[in-house]
Amino acid sequence: MNSKVIGAMLILGSLLTVIPWFIGGDTSGMTPSEQITAILAESDTVETRSILNVFGGIFMFAGLYYLARTLKSENNLSNHFAEIGGLLLLVTLPIWVVLMGTDISAIDAAKDHGNEVGATIIASSIGLQTIGILLVVGLFSLGISLTLLRKYKGIIGILFIIASVAAFIDMVVAPDSDAIGTIGWMGMFLMTLVTGILTTLQKEN
User: Fold this and answer.
1) pLDDT digits (tens, 9 = 90+) for 119-154
2) Confidence tier at 188 by pLDDT (50, 70, 90)
3) From residue 126, how far is each of 8, 29, 98, 129 by CA, in Å?
4) Whether 199 contacts 67, CB under 8 Å
5) Number of folded domains in the chain?
6) Range of the structural domain that residue 18 is part of
7) CA 185 to CA 195: how far, in whole Å?
8) What SS3 class is residue 181?
9) What pTM, to 2 d.p., does this model score?
């Protein structure tokens, strides 16, 4: 695939994924019952955010997968990490779409059948949040491949590795401070955006 198309997918995907985080309230830490009440209070905003997240994920994960495919080289170790990373990120895509669409399904169910049904849908989606592990390992592998190839002087790959490790620590240890989580999750999306810009500016071979 054309590098400019891949770059555009990464840019658009990262923006559509991150910007909606700043739209509407935060329901993290709430019980499913509390979440459905909060979601219904701003249902239009939540539905808009979910739709943007769905399309953002499609562009971003597909872009990262195609980026991984462009990293094929004579370095077998780098090839292995690129293949593993690309595959994990591709597997992440459908799970992301289902997870991001959960709020919309919960809103419709709550309006038609009551809040308890909506809360049940939200509760059943909790297991899908393990998607974070696939995302972290996928980007970590991609970062190693980029580093081994010294793509973009190896800087982008190292930053991907640092961000994914920070995100993993945030998932496993759950530190009191939000700093590690911010560095990890925002760092991964920011590096995806930067990679998209650099890939767009890259000259075709």
Assistant:
1) 999 988 877 777 889 999 999 999 999 999 998 888
2) very high
3) 31, 12, 11, 6
4) yes
5) 1
6) 3-201
7) 15
8) helix
9) 0.87
